[in-house]
Design goal:
CATH architecture of the largest domain: Up-down Bundle
Order of helices and strands: HHHHHHHHEHHEEHEEHEEE
Structural class: alpha+beta
Number of domains: 3
Distance between the termini: 77 Å
CATH topology of the largest domain: Four Helix Bundle (Hemerythrin (Met), subunit A)
Number of helices: 12
Helix content: 55-70%
Amino acid sequence: MHQWALAAVMTLLPLLVAIGYAIQFLEQQNQGQYRLVNTVILVNQLSVKVAEEVQELERLAKQYVVLADLRFAELYRSKERMVRGKLKKLEEAIGKPALNQTVSMVLNLIDSSRVFPQVFPVTDGTPPAEPVDFDRVMQTRQEEPAREQPLDQLEAVFDDVNKQVWALASLTKQFIDESLKRAEKEYADKRQYIWWIGSLILPLSGLLILLFSYRISRPLKQLGLSIKSLGQGDLEQPIAIRGSQDLVALGDRLEWMRLRLLSLEKQKSVFLRHVTHELKTPLSSIIEAASLLSDQVPGPINARQQHVLSILASNADKLLDQIQQLLNYNTVRSERTVAQSQVYIPALIARQLDRVSDLIEASRITFECEGGNVTIVSESARIEMILSNLISNAINYSGHGSTIFIVWQADSKELSISVKDQGPGISKAEQDMIFQPFYQGEAVHEGAIEGSGLGLSIVKECVEALHGRIVVDSEPGKGANFIVYLPLGVELAPEMGDSVSPYYPSQHSDS
């Protein structure tokens, strides 16, 4: 649980950081755009207002010159104060040296003490705070001739002022354009930066997801494989799970279960060995005694007694065969390694056919065998069990007079042996179940051998012990073909010419 929480946090953390940065960027961009819009509006309004009020100053100055009315001079000075205030705000908003210089020139040109020196005393550029004594000024004008600037000179002054105002408007427009371009560039740069962060964080998050998925799923996969191995009866491989504490604890419990099952399996094997041994000893005595009675060693017997003895001997043989099958099954399950030797496949097949020759002749079954002179290095006992049980199974499900095909071939990597009958076949649903111990299929037995339900289980155990595989190719009504593949190092005999047929029972039977 803690691993899942840590994985979720570590995976989501880069995404959360990217989202937080994106939100912060959008907030900063929003605030910057808001400030930029306000500044652009303010600068634009100030520039327009300054141009309009400069025109108003020019009109008042001309009215004073034409009408010689000091009220226009006072209005001029009042309007000048307003223009000065707006130009100061424009300076503060833009703050560029070129604009500051232009503002200074405009202020110097529109200074009332320079436009009306006879009305306002010359100052440092700042209009006097005290009001002007207009009565004194009027009395001075009456005593002295007027010295106002001519109208054309005034127009020349304001031509210069208008040029500076136009330059001021141009600088203001340039400032607005530069501010917009700068804001657009900042937005593009940050957007590109966010894209870069996203292109890095998304793969990083993907890698973290894969990493944590691997770290979490690997113990679960190991756990699943261990459970599958236990289910398949593989009790030799120790179970060691690495991961979270919960999974490690579960792995420990599975290891305890494996050891417990292994102990029970060993006890069962020992029990089966003892029981089968104890059964075979008296059963062998019974078979021997029945054989002696049948041979009339103790004395003569009649026909009815002979019939009873044949039944006794037949069933004793069947019981002995089933006990031997049980011993074989126990052997292949308990012994994992058997001594290897050279195995000549044609001779091994011929030996297995000779073992059941009486049943073959009684059922008039024909064997067609095809394969090369192949010698392999493997476990002879296990291959013999495989062939014995596959042949017995084919006879068991073959009808009177049918044919069984045995084909083998080998290359440098693999040996394959195929045993195909003409029996009732096996349905798809049963093909995985027929290898289970003591399972009896739905098909009707037609042969003389009564199966114990362990034959195919022994075949599968032997094939797996040899690291091979077995394939069933069958359909209902079309017979069954069992193909065994053994990945062994194969030694091919020097003579690889004609294929051989190790046994044809029909040649020994009466036509």
